[in-house]
Write a structure and sequence with these properties.
Layout (H helix, E strand, L loop, with lengths): L41 E2 L5 E2 L2 H25 L2 H17 L21 H19 L10 H20 L6 H20 L7 H6 L4 H8 L11 H14 L10 H17 L17 H17 L6 H11 L28 E4 L4 E6 L2 E6 L14 E5 L17 H8 L7 E3 L10 E5 L3 E6 L6 E9 L4 E19 L5 E4 L6 E5 L5 E7 L5 E9 L8 E22 L6 E7 L2 E6 L4 E5 L3
Antiparallel strand pairs: 1-2, 3-4, 4-5, 5-6, 7-11, 8-9, 9-10, 10-11, 11-16, 12-13, 13-14, 14-16, 15-16, 17-18, 18-19
Helix pairs in contact: 1-2, 1-3, 2-3, 3-4, 3-5, 4-5, 5-7, 5-8, 8-9, 8-10, 10-11
Length: 595
């Protein structure tokens, strides 16, 4: 017997509260279309059952959003009667809430009506609007009862946007989604009335519309100002959803350039196997996020196509498995004209100066050096972190972040301790920015001078012919305790030798070998200990390694080689400011520290 399906009648809370207080993992969603919170409490992967008002409110958020996506798909599949009936239910529910705002929202939020946040209301409204627009393509005779809902969604989006921009927050990611909500609801209302949409001036072109927002929110290097993979994709997805029916060639050239730049940024940080590093405060792995990436790529490939993003879509489908409800295929034909020119493939080295990322690709290794600003409102204390990926293996990833309502684990994953960065005297880095010292076709060099008082750190990452070189130099005005950190996302073996470098082996779909040495004369202790793995499950342990020395100045040198690459590295030694790498074919190469 098919499970009963029911739209929740309650207001949604804050989805970030849907987290186990004991283990820091997002709770199992259960049947989001069933309309009822899981009986006996929401399940945790470690055996807990959690039932609090905050968790119930968070589940309602997830349910309403799942229903909105489901209605889009129903409309696309031609299941008109069911879609219209459910949309009418939402029209009644929204009207019953009158003009009340959510009275339990956190003080920092721009409050919504159906949810804590106006942002969450906007995300829901976008899917509602697009469901109606799709239905209107096949007739409007039964859509009149939905007009009050659509008109009110547009009005509320305009009101909320006015509050936000009145505070000078045109660049906020809220603004992107409020514009998308207003455009989607307004376009749907026009379609339901059988009229052309005339809201482009209000929602796209006007003083606070999508185009002005993108002009201030996206830096010259293509990154959304927060420098976070998640929030970057969040804003790009809102923009592409808002542009339904638009000819890409009709978009102002600077705005089209911003959209292309945002697409290029994602293509550059994505591994060949489609892994998108969770830079600066996004979920590490999450099924709803995989659905968002799939949707974004489906839209981007129609407007700003990029071969590099095809792998992201493929990986998202793998993660979704049975959860893939076909929503990305519902987006075919979203734009009214041909796409912009196809984007070029990333080079060996890509540098994003404003966001502060350097990407280096070397024979099966995908490396990212983080040196930029603190990261907007979502920053981590991780300057000069070095992230290492294979095609599909997160050997040393940015660990991501837990749902925000878990304050303790959120602080842990924002810490220097959690990242493959460096520490001084065991202390946390200050919230600070680094600087690019230089880059060329094969290397990136960056520094930070304000992470610790009186200390300068310089990191140079170089693509060798069949390996990657990492040179981290730290200098103080006196003897300090300097630590270089390895933070694996996979299983790791560490081998201390009687002489020569420490050896590491990193496992996963692909295998990575590492050689680790340091300035001669310094005594370095390679201490390994268990620590939390990436943020999708803080209870999973990984072997962390700290290379620590008492010195006034030291260089930590590492060479990494994918097992699939060759000829094999046979020797690594550091002489003063120069690292020598020897290979099995008898060749050698030398690299300076870049200081």
């Amino acid at each position: 017997m098919a499970a009963l399906r029911r739209i929740p009648r309650e207001r949604g809370g804050w989805w970030h509260a849907y987290v186990c207080p004991a283990h820091g993992v997002e709770l199992d969603h259960g049947d989001l279309l069933g309309g009822a919170f899981p009986k006996g409490g929401a399940r945790c992967a470690h055996g807990c059952r959690v039932d609090t008002e905050a968790v119930r409110g968070a589940w309602v958020v997830l349910s309403h959003q799942a229903w909105a996506r489901h209605l889009r798909v129903l409309a696309h599949r031609g299941e008109r009667a069911e879609a219209v009936t459910r949309l009418a239910e939402y029209a009644g529910l929204y009207a019953s809430l009158a003009t009340d705002r959510h009275d339990e929202a956190q003080g920092w939020m721009l409050r919504g009506r159906l949810f804590h946040q106006a942002l969450t209301d906007a995300i829901w409204a976008v899917s509602i609007g697009h469901a109606v627009t799709t239905l209107a393509e096949d007739g409007t005779e039964d859509l009149a009862p939905l007009l009050p809902l659509l008109d009110e969604l547009e009005r509320v989006a305009l009101e909320a946007r006015g509050v936000l921009t009145g505070r000078g927050q045109l660049a906020s990611n809220y603004t992107a989604w409020l514009n998308a909500a207003g455009a989607s609801a307004g376009r749907a209302a026009s379609a339901a009335r059988g009229l052309p949409w005339e809201g482009a001036k209000q929602w796209l072109e006007g003083e606070h519309g999508l185009y002005p927002h993108l002009r201030v929110a996206v830096a010259e290097d293509g990154w959304e100002w927060e420098g976070s993979t998640y929030y970057h994709g969040f804003v790009l997805r809102a923009a592409l959803l808002a542009l339904r029916g638009t000819d890409p060639a009709a978009i102002p050239s600077d705005v089209a350039g911003a959209l292309a730049g945002m697409t290029d940024a994602l293509a550059a940080i994505a591994t060949p196997g489609g892994v998108l590093p969770a830079l600066h405060d996004g979920p590490y792995l999450r099924l709803p996020l995989a659905l968002e990436w799939l949707e974004l790529v489906a839209l981007a490939q129609q407007s700003v196509p990029s071969d590099a993003l095809d792998a992201v879509a493929s990986r998202a489908r793998e993660e979704l498995g049975a959860y893939d409800d076909g929503l990305d295929r519902e987006l075919d034909g979203w734009f009214a004209g041909p796409p912009l020119p196809r984007r070029p493939a990333p080079e060996t080295v890509t540098v994003f100066r404003a966001a502060g990322y350097g990407v280096v690709r070397a024979a099966g290794i995908h490396a990212l050096l983080d040196f930029g600003p603190h990261g907007g409102s979502h920053g981590h204390r991780d300057k000069l972190s070095l992230y290492l990926y294979g095609d599909t293996t997160p050997w040393q990833p940015d660990p991501g972040q837990v749902p925000y309502a878990h304050a303790e684990f959120r602080d842990l994953y924002a810490s220097t301790e959690a990242h493959p960065a460096f520490r001084v005297d065991g202390a946390e880095q200050a919230e600070c920015a680094g600087a690019l010292l230089g880059s060329d076709a094969r290397s990136v060099t960056a520094e930070v001078t304000t992470a610790y008082e009186g200390v300068r750190g310089v990191r140079r990452v170089v693509a060798g012919g069949c390996y990657l070189v990492d040179l981290l130099s730290v200098t103080g005005s006196e003897v300090r305790s300097f630590t270089a950190q390895l933070r694996p996302g996979t299983s790791l073996d560490v081998q201390q030798q009687a002489a020569g470098p420490v050896l590491t082996t990193w496992y996963g779909d692909e295998t990575l070998h590492g050689w680790h040495t340091h300035t001669r004369g310094a005594e370095v202790r390679p201490v390994s200990r268990p620590g939390p793995g990436p943020a999708d499950d803080p209870q999973r342990t990984r072997t962390r390694v700290d290379f620590t020395a008492e010195a006034e100045r030291i260089t930590f040198a590492s060479v990494y080689q994918a097992a699939s690459a060759g000829p094999a590295v046979t020797g690594v030694r550091l002489d003063g400011e120069e690292l020598t790498v020897e290979l099995a074919d008898g060749s050698t190469a030398r690299f300076g520290t870049g200081c």
